[in-house]
Amino acid sequence: MQNFRKDFLWGGATAANQYEGAWDEGGKGDSVPDHCTVGSASSPKWVTEEIRPDVLYPSHEAADFYHHYKEDIALAAQMGFRVFRLSINWTRIFPTGLEEEPNEEGLLFYENVFAELHRYGIEPLVTLSHYELPYTLVRRYNGWAGRETIDCFVRYSRAVLDRFHGSVRYWLTFNEINSGTMPMGTVMSLGIIRGYTGPVPDAPADPQTRFQALHHQFIASALTVRYAHEHYPELKIGDMNLFSAMYPLTCRPVDVLACQRRNQMTNWFCSDIQVRGSYPYYAERYFEENNIRIRKEPEDDRILREGTVDFYTFSYYMSSCVSANEHKEMAGGNGIGGEKNPYLQASDWGWQIDPDGLHYSLNEIYGRYRIPIMVVENGLGAYDKKEPDGSVHDGYRIDYMRSHIAAMKEAVRDGVDLMGYTPWGWIDVVSASTGEMAKRYGFVFVDKYDDGTGTLARSPKDSFYWYQKVIRTNGEDLR
Ligand code: BGP
């Protein structure tokens, strides 16, 4: 029976705004996350129009990869990483998004990072946009609501493709692009928050604006893919989706239909466009019923057709249930919440843990698209306790990872073409949803806390040695 392929890309994932820090060094401009405060499991983070001197903004220092990149890459190499997912921070390259020429100091930083990765034989996997919209474009164009933002993005993506095509083979355009189909995407992904200060979940966003902004992201993504294919045919460009397995809460046919509908517009809508090259048939009725009218330029359909991706990637943390009756008992989740599943346990943040859902999802995705797939985020956000000797006994994280890797193995045996696996926040980073450091995912502990204190020292957790063994045995030994 098939196992993980010999060249399986084992590694880990990060994003600049949650990891890098140095928010105003090296000529970097401010991006949307630089305007976001700390929240918690019970109180939401805020986005503020002005950056206030008396408020803590976790992205400003984060885990300070900017000054620790050599040390961190050495740790990744020690675990045996073959791939390292990171994002380029748009505002390091184009500080306001409006410049004509890129910022050389920003380019140099990534050049050094990629050189360091290659020294250890680690392949970079680069996300072009991971919730890192220049804040100036919020002020100027209301973020992605403005069609002008497409040109700004394309200028940026061409600049980094031109500079790094020789050192980066794998690229993703927009992180969790389908978050824009949900209210959660309003701030971090779409940046349609001109003039807004307040809790992130309360940012106003009518579906018309959201889906128009999303259309602009599809065009920006497709133009980037087309450019890469034309100029650098050896590169592989992927999409990136927030995927949540969805089950009907019961076998009542109306629950099954409700679940199918929800699946279409949250899990499939964006990838149907980015993989197949046109808007899917089911969107029409959804748009009609929600008074959404997408304004398209005459060339848009062609651009979408010509800019389809080479591989499909997704984040997978949890599953949810859907019922036609609104609502019984709700569970939390990574944007896509849903009804509580009585058969599953949840994390401390209410995300329902479901490795079988990953096995199921991999088959669903591969069956639909038949292109290579990569799981580019997965993991358990948990409260870790550092012992006085610096160790962290995170057996709960090992259990989570073990069951999810076993699920991937099952899917590979089913015949799914799985390229690789980069668990989220392989080193502790700031949480995207809450802004906390306390919600940790890493195999490596970073001494940094929610009040901004900490030495930033790195120390391997128990899971570090476990994952090292998993990689060494190519996923054979999961004990
Ligand atoms: C995804 C994002 C990541 C990441 C992860 C975990 O939505 O792509 O940026 O943070 O989820 O989420 P959180 O940090 O909210 O626990």
List keywords for this structure.
479 residues, alpha/beta, eight-stranded parallel beta barrel, two-stranded antiparallel ribbon, 14 helices, 14% strand, globular, binds 6-O-phosphono-beta-D-galactopyranose
Q: Oligomeric form of this entry?
A: single chain
Question: Which strand order do you get reading across the main beta sheet?
Answer: 1-3-4-5-7-9-13-14
End-to-end Cα distance: 20 Å
For the biggest sheet, the summary is: 8 strands, parallel, barrel
Helix content: 25-40%
Bound molecules: 6-O-phosphono-beta-D-galactopyranose
Q: What order do the SSEs take from the amino end to the carboxyl end, as H and E?
A: EHEHEHHEHHEHEHEEHHHEEEEHEHEEEH
Indicate the low-confidence ranges by residue numbers: none
- The percent range for strand residues is 5-15%
Count of individual beta strands: 16
Structural class: alpha/beta
What's the mean pLDDT score? 96
Based on CA atoms alone, the radius of gyration comes out at 21 Å
- Counting DSSP H or I runs of 4 or more residues, the number of helices is 14
Shape annotation: globular
Account of the protein in words:
- This protein is of the alpha/beta class and 479 residues long.
- Helix content is 37%, strand content 14%.
- It contains 14 helices and 16 strands.
- The protein has helices at residues 16-19, 65-79, 90-93, 104-119, 135-141, 148-164, 185-188, 207-231, 253-276, 283-289, 300-306, 355-369, 395-414, 462-472; strands at 9-13, 46-47, 83-87, 123-129, 170-174, 198-199, 236-242, 245-248, 311-315, 319-322, 330-331, 338-339, 373-377, 418-421, 444-446, 458-460.
- The strands form five sheets. An eight-stranded parallel beta barrel has the order 1-3-4-5-7-9-13-14, surrounded by five helices. A two-stranded antiparallel sheet has the order 2-6. Strands 8-10 form a two-stranded parallel sheet.
- The radius of gyration is 21 Å and the shape is globular.
- The chain starts with 8 loop residues before the first strand and ends in a 7-residue tail after the last helix.
- 53% of the residues are buried.
- The mean pLDDT is 96.
- Bound molecules: 6-O-phosphono-beta-D-galactopyranose.
- Residues 15, 18, 175-176, 242, 315, 334, 377, 381, 424, 431-433, 439 line the site of 6-O-phosphono-beta-D-galactopyranose.
